[in-house]
Amino acid sequence: MLKFTRSLVIATALSGSVLSAGFVAPVLAAETERREATIMVSGEGEATIAPDMAVISLVVVRDAETAGEALSANSAAMTEVLADLKGQGIADKDLQTTDFSIQPKYRQENKPDGTYEAPVIVGYTVSNGLTVRVRDLAQLGTIIDRSVKLGVNQGGGISFTNDDPQQTVEAARKQAVEKAAAKAKTLTEAAGVKLGRVVEISENFAQPMPQMYAAAPMAKRMDESVPIASGENRYTVTVNITYAIEQ
C-alpha cells in the first residue's frame, strides 16, 4: 500500500510539471515576440512659405460721463470703421467683434486723517475690439491708416499667417520621413545589422507661431504710410519611425 501511494505522488508531481510547462511555454513565446529587436529614429523636416493673410486687431475706446454716452460715441466710431473696411473689400466673414466691454471709472480721494473716501463713479469707458483678416497684404498699410483716422485708438497687433498651408506642411513631412529613413540606414549599416519592416510611425507637427508686429503709434502723422514687412512662415514636422531589425 505504501508503494502505491508513493507512485501516485510521483505521477501527480510529474503531471503537474508537464501542465506547468504547457502554460509557461506560450508566455515565454509572447515575451520573445514582444522583445523583437527594433531601432527607433526621428527626422525633422521644415518648409517655409510667404504669408498670404494678415490678422489685425483694431480697438475703439471711448470715455464719457455716462455709460450711454460712451456707448453711443463708441458705436458711432466703430460703425464708420466697419463701413470703411467693407468698402475696401473686406468680407463680412473676415470681420469679428472681440472683447467688447463697458467699465466704470472710479475716483477715490484721501481724507485728511489718512483714510480713503468711498470710491465714486466719475465716468465710463466702452471698448470695442475688432479682429480683421486681410487677404490682400498690399492693403494692410492703408487699412491701418484709414482705421486710425476713423477712430481706432488702441490695438494694432498684426499676425501674418497662411490661409491654406497644407502643401507646405506636406513638403516638411516628406522631408522628415526621408531624414529619419536615412538615419536608420546609417545606424544599422554601422552596427552590421539589416533594417527590417516599419513597426510604428508617428509625427509631431509644430504649428508656426504667427509673426507679430506692433502697429504704428497712434500719434503718428495721418499722412504717413504704415510700413509693413511680412517675412515668411516656417512649418516644422518631426517624424518618429520604429523599424524592426532582421536577424
Automatic annotation (TrEMBL):
InterPro entries: 26kDa_periplasmic_antigen, SIMPL/DUF541. It comes from the Bacteria. Keywords: Signal. The keyword Signal applies. Residues 1-29 form the signal peptide. The keyword Signal applies. This is SIMPL domain-containing protein.
